[in-house]
Amino acid sequence: MNLNSVRPPKVDDSGFKGDDHPSLSNMIYGSLRASILNGSLAPGQVLRQEELAAQFHTSRVPLREALQLLQAEGLVVLRPRRGYAVHALDGAQLVELLRLRILIEAFGGYVGTLRRGEKDIAQAAGILQDMEKMPARLARESQRVRWWTLDRQFHRAIFTAGRTAQIGDMFDNITAKTDPYIMHDTAMVAFQHTALDDHRQILTAFSKGDADRAAQLSRSHCERLATHFAEALRRQSQLAGEPSPRITDLGPALAMSRRNLT
Predict the structure, then answer these.
(1) N or C: which end of the chain has fewer CB within 10 A?
(2) Domains recognised in the chain with CATH numbers
(3) pTM given for the model
């Protein structure tokens, strides 16, 4: 895997900022964000404003507003005298983001399980069923994009049940930066079956309202994901040394959630 040359096909996973009737700048933001998230716009790729303005049939004003939204999320960077480019990460930065995701997965799983309702359970179960219908071997790029998109939606459904937008926003920000690398690394295909089993157990705890168990399972699941990906990066000489992606103690985070939510 080359961390700077990922160019898979597009999928629709945009989501807009603002109200239900987004402005032109928000529509451009949503389209560009989706392309970054699924890797159609590769890490490090230069975003030429004149080309984008022609593509979206717009002036540079709404385009610049969209790029500023993406910059605020850390998805693009503005380079002096060279314009915008998609944010590129090295192996160590990717692992560090996955370490943060471990914390978010555990806390989000706990909060979501405490507050979930029947509709939340049905939504998460439906996404898992879609994942289980995917081929046993994800041979094509488009299949890997689809599978990891569903994976992201499954975890997002757990957090949404917690009615805590901040958790979902942090999760979205991390996955937007890491998923373009993870979903197109062929070494990660082997993680699919482990992830499905993890999701089944998380869904069971989520359905039963067992918040402690859901938090523990969510943490372990994300630790396995981070470890598997870190090992793939090391094999490809994209990560030096052996930094552990595991977070061994989540006590303070979970203790705080219990005080505030129970």
Answers:
(1) C
(2) 24-86 (1.10.10.10), 91-261 (1.20.120.530)
(3) 0.75
